[in-house]
User: What shape does this take?
Amino acid sequence: MSTRPHILLGQTLGFTGDPFRDGPSAARHNSHGAVLIEQGLVTWTGPADQLVAPKDAQTTDYGDKLIMAGFVDAHVHYAQTAIIASWGKRLIDWLNDYTFPEESRFGDPDYAATIAARYFDLAQAHGTTTMCSYATIHPESVDAFFAEAQKRGLRALAGKTCMDRNAPDTLRDTAQSAYDDSKALLERWHGQDRLGYVISPRFSPTSTPDQLSALGALWAEHPDCLMQTHLSEQVEEIAWVRDLFPAARDYLDTYEAHGLLGAKGVYGHAIHLEPREKDRLKELGASLVHCPTSNTFIGSGLFDTAGLKSQGQTVGLATDTGGGSSFSMLRTMAAAYEVGQLTGTALHPSQLLWLATAGSAQALHLSDKVGNLAKGMEADLVVLDLASTPAIAQRAAQADDIWQAVFPTIMMGDDRAVADMWISGRQAPDD
Ligand code: GUN
Ligand code: ZN
Assistant: This one.
């Protein structure tokens, strides 16, 4: 790895606070900014004319392109890459008809490796530098994900999806094998390079109470790991959980009763929460993940980002591919904006960009490492062309400030807006 310092010039954007709390002034924008990268870290960023450049530094000038933290996708199913955009089902039928048959293929390590490479190609092409993924029940699928992420030098999180009921025979483990396999994978991968293991019961309907307890025990033995699952995504699912767990106070209680609720818990969707569930999640500082393209695509409902943030909840943003209909965190921000409009709040571009970077990093307990352009952070960066298509360019040309300049890219941008990317201080190779 080259140890020469590297200077990037362009517009720069980072955060000194949370724009949901502090407003747009929580963002630090420089129209002529600079980023100094040394040994894989950002060691300085600010106005270019204040940079004291090391003598041996190389420079890349991005003109008026925008340099910011790479996107952090806080909830994705890499193994669903090949079934993205499957038509016409609601959650339970979508799982049974599309997802489970596809996930059944991941016991084959070659297939798992092919899809892992395809997924990372797509995620990186869209500017995502960190992702937290579910794999399938097969340990091979976890190995394939981490091997590919490691090869690319990414900071990435994942875990074996555990299911011991209400799934096809080919996709069921047991309470004991879920514990044993998850533990072996955790010991193999957690803390290797930039990788982290996430204990991953799929959701209460596909785990017996015994399996939930076994995974709760594993989490108690490894409290530094995250635990991810799904929560209150769709009304039919919630009714099913009520039938399966008649003694539970609510959906969240099915996790809490088995040791699967805590500050390092990451709960996907969390749309239809009861007041008690919100209070408990807030009290513990657990993370909620907004998956707006999935929630509209599968018809699940409207996550109230502004309301939940104003209550002090920890909220990240995610594609939820392949329930989500895009690999792009730009498209995901656009969907979050549209859902915000439908729930009564126009989220500000600073809030959308924060959710897709620092907010997701916070939800994944990675705030000290990724998700912000600031001194000391790992140099995982995306360089956005704010005029990547004629439609975007003509709108951005009318902009009076950075927010008007970036909003057309948020709403209409795709992989063409991703001009360049840096991973751990190295320029990512072109595809
Ligand atoms: N709930 C349980 N599993 C899944 C999944 O794979 N995708 C979505 N969107 N919801 C789920
Ligand atoms: Zn999911």
About this structure: Residues 109-125 form the longest helix (17 residues). Residues 75, 77, 230, 268, 320, 323 surround zinc ion (ligand 2) (CB under 6 Å). DSSP finds 15 helices and 16 strands in the chain. The CA atoms of residues 308 and 402 lie 27 Å apart.
